[in-house]
Amino acid sequence: MSIQVVVVDDHQIVRDGLVALLGALDGVEVVGSAADGREALHVVAETEPDVVVMDIQMPHLDGIEATRFITGKHPDVRVVMLTMNEDDDTVLSAIRAGASGYLLKGSGAEEVHNAVRAAAAGGMVFGAALAGRVATYFAGATARRVEELPFPDLTERERGILEMLAAGRSNDAIARELFVSNKTVRNSVSSIYTKLHAAGRAEAIVKAREAGFGKG
After folding, report:
1. What number of other Cβ atoms are within 10 A of residue 146's Cβ?
2. Which of 93, 118, 143 delimits the end of a domain?
3. Domain final residue, candidates 143, 164, 197
4. How confident is the model at residue 154 (pLDDT cuts 50, 70, 90)?
5. E strands of the chain, at which residues?
6. Does the model's pTM come out above 0.70?
7. pLDDT tens digits, residue range 23-50?
8. Do both 8 and 93 map to the same domain?
């Protein structure tokens, strides 16, 4: 059975090239593409692919945030980042967001193919230039306790919503970003207030910003 893939990149030439490259590989079927992170959420919801090949720097919603929402809402969908950006902060942000792989643009067809297959099988793949840094990160992450994260009681979805709250977004804006109803967002926001022991939106935002949310 073919691995179903969605390609996300805001540059049409790059996007079309990736669609052609992946579509020519044995055992791979491209089932959709998107020009930005927001569109990617919609396409993934429609197609339920096995793997998303995702750029990072895009308008409306960047690849890191899109990956966080996709892996939170569709846990069986794997995301492989394919980008020019190789700085440590971006690589680690992608890992924290749930990416299963991270390749640099310019990777060969075989490397991309191997990454897609590995991700679909539940593995993680990182380009040779990044492997050492990623290994170092995982060694440190294994030693860290989950409780060291701010607000450990929050779910991944609630963390994403709190990030947007701290950035000043309204419930309506959050609902549009996540392609969910206003009621769903209200329920999540109410749960966040409870877990943060916040009396309301203003207090929750203050606590979130003090913990580093809303600065991305």
Report:
1. 6
2. 143
3. 143
4. confident
5. 3-8, 28-34, 51-54, 78-83, 101-104, 125-126
6. no
7. 998 899 999 999 999 999 999 999 999 9
8. yes
Number of residues in the chain? 216
Tell me phi and psi for residue 145, to 5 degrees. -90, 145
What the block records as the tokens of 127 is 């380009």
Determine the Cα–Cα distance for residues 137 and 140; give it in Å rounded to an integer.
5
Buried b / exposed e along 84-113 (16+ C-beta atoms within 10 A): ebeeeebbebbbbbbbbbbbbeebeeeebb
Residue 176 CA to residue 185 CA, distance in Å, equals 10
| Residue 59, both tokens | 């308008």
Contact present, 161 and 201 (Cβ < 8 Å)? no
Which residue is it, tokens 């701010």? 150
Identify whether residues 172 and 91 lie together within a single domain: no
Cβ contacts of 171 within 8 Å, gap of 6 or more: 182, 185, 186, 189
Confidence of residue 146 (pLDDT cuts 50, 70, 90): very low
C-beta separation of 56 from 81 below 8 A? yes
